[in-house]
Amino acid sequence: MRFTPTPIAGVVRVEAEPHADERGLFARLHCPEAFAAAGIPFEPAQTSISRNPKAGTLRGMHYQAAPHAETKLVRVTRGRVFDVAVDLRPDSPTYRQWTGAELSAENLLGLFIDEGIAHGFLTLEPDSDVVYQIAPAYRPGHDAGVRWNDPAFGIDWPAAPRLISERDASYPDHRG
Q: What is the pLDDT of residues 145-155, one digit of tens each?
């Protein structure tokens, strides 16, 4: 695996290094020792999937509030998404900045997202599945979010969403 920092500390591109032959390919997608060697102590407690049948589906921008903040490794196992992370840590030099990457089943790219960073994605193809590895395990009642189009962040989405939940569409502007 190759680990490439993004402009936001705590958001890291995780590239698989597939081994291919006539049968197809094989690649490690997570290894605690490799993550630790890259300075990322990440041992997931939970794995979840988000199945999205329609292109243009927007989910986000979500995070878990302290004291149950989560770290996550996000990958696409089918389809393609534009994945976004927004820094919500007030003491961070990149506070309110965002970074994004196209994740697909083809490119095997993952995005590691640390505590205090909101996450969301826009599906670019129908039938896109997003797999999350999360630590610690999800705690109900600590869900939080910021609006996907809040001008405080200025996220440059590749397209307007065609499907978004009422909750995700109605988060208030971020104050902080």
A: 999 999 999 99
